[in-house]
């Protein structure tokens, strides 16, 4: 079976934009104080722009998904297939919920720079939009109690991964601020945000690991582990786990080595070297995120081993 690259590409784009929208708005709530949000990060253009992109990619995705399900070419758009998908399936209902949630989140993003309530609305509604992706993958494939467990695990996995992606975006924007706008107050804020993500990051990573194990058990099954590397799905999953392990290693270095070194260098007045190290580490971690999201977009188009039994 050949890979459906247009569908994989738009799934990847949706994971990036929805994770960024949810994670960055959440980071603004727990990582920054009210008076700091407007000055530390340009929330309005980032959140509003990401929301509009997510709306665009959602529109493209429904057309591609309908074409794939109908066995038709993606262009011209098969309006009948799209109509059937939207009216006769849980995926269609989830898409409608996503579009409404993204509209609300995008409107709230226009006034979210310094105010807690609009930023909270962005986080809530973008979280709902991100959660709807569970109905476009394997999370909705099971029925009964198993189906609800799988769906819940998939939603939690999406939200925790989105929180990590958004935190990386927020921290990356903080450490890459131009030198002419980097003063002592910004350096102190950057350190506090880096240090403060420690507890949140631990919760996020724990949730990712637990829900990932649940999903692996339901999608792969213990009996398929010995032959996992013989299938495309298995090889992509192994690659994803290797990249995730690399991210966990980098996150540990950031928390226990690079962030304390940054604090010491700021106190000594010579922070440029430590800041470059943090930038490099976060850039590598972000590259791993991009690769993982490509793999996730691809995996969602393949049949998992457990369903082939």
Query: Helix/strand/pairing class, anyone?
Result: mainly alpha
Strand content: under 5%
Distance between the termini: 18 Å
SS summary, helix count? 10
The overall pLDDT, averaged over residues, is 86
The number of domains is 2
Fraction in helix: over 70%
Query: Which word captures the global form?
Result: globular
Please count the beta strands (DSSP E, at least 2 residues each).
0
> Strand-and-helix sequence, N→C?
HHHHHHHHHH
Biggest sheet: strands, sense, closure?
A: none
Which runs of at least 5 residues are low in confidence (pLDDT < 50)? none
Radius of gyration: 20 Å
Keywords: Cell membrane, Membrane, Transmembrane, Transmembrane helix
Protein name: Putative copper resistance protein D
Subcellular location: Cell membrane
InterPro entries: CopC/D (IPR032694), CopD (IPR047689), Cu-R_CopD_dom (IPR008457)
Give your account of this protein's structure:
It is a single chain. It is built from 10 helices and no strands. The protein is mainly α and 309 residues long. It folds into 2 domains: 1-136, Four Helix Bundle (Hemerythrin (Met), subunit A), CATH 1.20.120; 142-309. Helix 1 (5-31) packs across helix 7 (144-175) and helix 7 runs antiparallel to helix 10. It starts with a helix and ends in a 10-residue tail after the last helix. The mean pLDDT is 86.
């Amino acid at each position: 079976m050949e890979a459906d690259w247009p569908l994989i590409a738009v799934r990847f784009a949706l994971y990036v934009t929805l994770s960024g929208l949810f994670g960055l708005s959440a980071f603004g709530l727990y990582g920054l104080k009210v008076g700091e949000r407007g000055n530390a990060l340009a929330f309005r253009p980032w959140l509003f722009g990401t929301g509009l992109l997510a709306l665009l990619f959602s529109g493209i995705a429904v057309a591609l998904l309908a074409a794939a399900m109908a066995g038709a070419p993606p262009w011209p758009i098969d309006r009948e297939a799209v109509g059937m998908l939207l009216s006769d399936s849980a995926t269609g209902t989830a898409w409608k919920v996503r579009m409404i949630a993204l509209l609300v989140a995008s409107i709230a993003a226009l006034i979210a720079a310094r105010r807690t309530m609009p930023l909270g609305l962005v986080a809530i509604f973008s979280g709902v939009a991100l959660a709807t992706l569970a109905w476009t993958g394997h999370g909705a494939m099971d029925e009964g109690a198993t189906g609800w467990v799988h769906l819940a695990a998939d939603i939690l996995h999406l939200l925790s991964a989105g929180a990590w992606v958004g935190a990386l975006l927020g921290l990356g924007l903080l450490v890459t601020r131009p030198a002419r706008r980097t003063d002592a107050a910004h350096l102190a804020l950057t350190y506090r945000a880096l240090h403060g993500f420690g507890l949140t990051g631990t919760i996020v990573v724990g949730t990712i690991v637990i829900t990932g194990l649940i999903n692996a058990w339901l999608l792969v099954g213990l009996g398929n582990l010995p032959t996992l590397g013989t299938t495309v799905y298995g090889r992509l999953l192994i690659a994803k786990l290797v990249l995730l392990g690399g991210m966990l290693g980098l996150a540990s270095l950031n928390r226990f080595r690079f962030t304390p070194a940054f604090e010491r260098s700021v106190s000594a007045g010579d922070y440029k070297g430590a800041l470059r190290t943090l930038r490099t580490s976060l850039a590598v971690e972000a590259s791993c995120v991009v690769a993982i999201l490509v793999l996730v977009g691809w995996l969602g188009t393949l049949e998992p081993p457990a369903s082939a039994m």
